[in-house]
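not sure who needs this but someone in the group chat was asking about Methyltransferase family protein from Kribbella sandramycini so here u go. i didnt clean anything up, its just raw.
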Amino acid sequence: MTVSALLDDVGAEVLAAACSEYAVGRELQVVEKLRKRYDGALVSAAVTQAALRVRAVAKFGADAERMFFTPDGYEQATRTTVGVHRASRIAAALPGASVIDLGCGIGGDLISAARAGLRVTGVERDAETAAAARANLAALGLSGEVVVGDAESTDLAAYDVVFADPARRADGRRVFDHNAYSPPWSFVSALLERTACVKVAPGIPHDAVPADVEAEWISDAGEVKEAALWSGALYAGVARRATLLPGGATVGTAPEAVVGPVGRYLYEPDGAVIRAGLVTAVAAAVDGWLLDPRIAYVTSDTLTPTAFASAYEVVEELPYKEKSLRAWVRTNGIGTLEIKKRGVDVDPAVLRKKLGPKGTATATLLITRIGRDAVAYSCRRI
């Protein structure tokens, strides 16, 4: 018994009771209390839904309190900030367009698209997940249709835009190889021959993206969330783009950059910038250069605020030797030690334990590779 059972009057009553009683860690007590008044299977479904709503606030904000979820549907759903960005881009290029969402899940992208003034239809092969998507549009007062069906057999001719979110989980585990997506990559590639947007994992290889298709890597609050492939009327003329939410800063070109020694400041590009291969755009933005052509750190003698990177002031260069680093930690009374690394085979948590920070000072240790040599820099986060 899942979402559908909670949509009639009795189910809605049990769900309301479960949500009012629910608190993390009190699941058993709530179930026991409600089972005195309602069917046990219905109570279990309602308490599960209440728990999912609490978890979903991180993705959907206040909307989560009115939405319906399945466990897998919640895990795979697009968070609102990303969905709004994507829907806004479609609406700006094609106002009022008809959009079909293949594999719509619980309807996160349908919600964002409908709010952007797009006409939406969702296709979902799992009936309970489709019921959740349909209920979510209704609960939020949005127009749209959700049908149970298979993405590969859906007639797309009537729609201006196709949006697809291929399944990237198998047996409860994430799938990282794009060739293992469902629907298969051959179907995705065919979609990209028309006006489409396809959500993919951020690890998508650059050479897997077809010609005349833009790959956009998106981070939210500093964390890379996904990539999206844009084609047809949604293609903006660049091969790769990085977009940083919630601010919306975006970059799609990467000029040449020189390589040189460490300057007064080090810049760590946002993960979306790195995934998109646009690190040299940061160098251009801060009047800087690369430490190494294969390493995603930028350095400069100028402190320039940029949305595309975090800045650190270089205090000193240190020998990359455990004994020397331990002495540095002890001498400077460091108790809180942030360790950043790139291009070096080291586990920051293991190294931190070995260095034994016990003081009151705070420091950042950046470890990277220049050529064949590992180097370490004592830094101050700005």
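also The mean pLDDT is 94. if thats useful
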